[in-house]
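Help: read this over?
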Amino acid sequence: MTRITFDRRGAAVLFGALALAACDGSDNPFKPELGFIAGTKENQQIGVVVNSTEHALTLFQLGDPSQTRQVSLGSSSLITPVGLSIRGTRAAVPLGNAASVAIVDLEGQKIERFFILPGGNLTGSAWADDRSGLVANTVADYVGRFSLDQAGDTVKARVQVAPAPTEIVMAGDRAMVVSGNLDDNYNYIGNGIVTALDPATLKVLGTVTTGGKNSASAALGPDGLLYVLNTEDYVKESTVTIIDPKTLQATATVGGFGTGAGKITIDRSGLAYVSGFFTGTLVWNTRTRQFVRGTDNPVCAKTTSGACRGAFDAQADENGMLYQVFFGSRDYAPRVFVYRPGSFQLADSLSAGQGPSSIEIRKF
């Protein structure tokens, strides 16, 4: 989860007042009309957590984490969400085996509507614009396009992509679809594949093969490049393939990301946070291509035995505070751990529902 602050003074009283007013209004000023998702006056950022086993979203204010709200996604055992995408004050939440997408009004903390598909398992999603988005069907190997303006709830616009698509990342006017390239028995067909789509027409613009197997997650860096995480087989070391979305060229594949890495996020300074089921979170600088915290010193909350708790996801806020999702285990309760910027010293431990698997930090 995530945070930020700034300040300035002038010499003359009038100049100082004008400068202060400009500062106060420059970057998402406090908007009390938004209610809970306005955050606090000191920190307007909101954490949005996907609770897989609780079938819910949990929202909390970074300025006062004791203030939370929860949105139920339904009671069916088929509802197995693992991620979400946010545009404005709406979230699109693929519901896994329920083969549907919930559109959540974050301001009102309620479900606005559902979009449904014939079957399969829905995982990754991305908003193409304010009114439409894309969702990946991991089992049926296609991407569907939904629109808030469509009359019915069935997603009819669909395009086949490489097998086992799990993630969609917008890169300018292109949707980059990450596929693990697995068969129906989850065996490797080959290295992962990224398919570039026109999000408006679903036309396939091209494909590129990654430098590793079981590609599962990706993030766009501030340099405009796509960083694709290749989980591999949970025994072999995970890797990251760097792809130019414009040319669809894979420029490098970097190793050293430990075993079982499943999620990558990148902050605005270019630090990549790679979270793994066995390692916690590694920190890698996309600018220098060097590890800040590697497998020998991951960012993690230690157990009583000194071992690292695993991490499903981690995201930095505007201040560089790192929010890390721990799903929970037989011996330890699920938590969101908060680490200080730079030192990555553990600063806080938050409760954010059962089975947290993903987190987004946003300012509305």
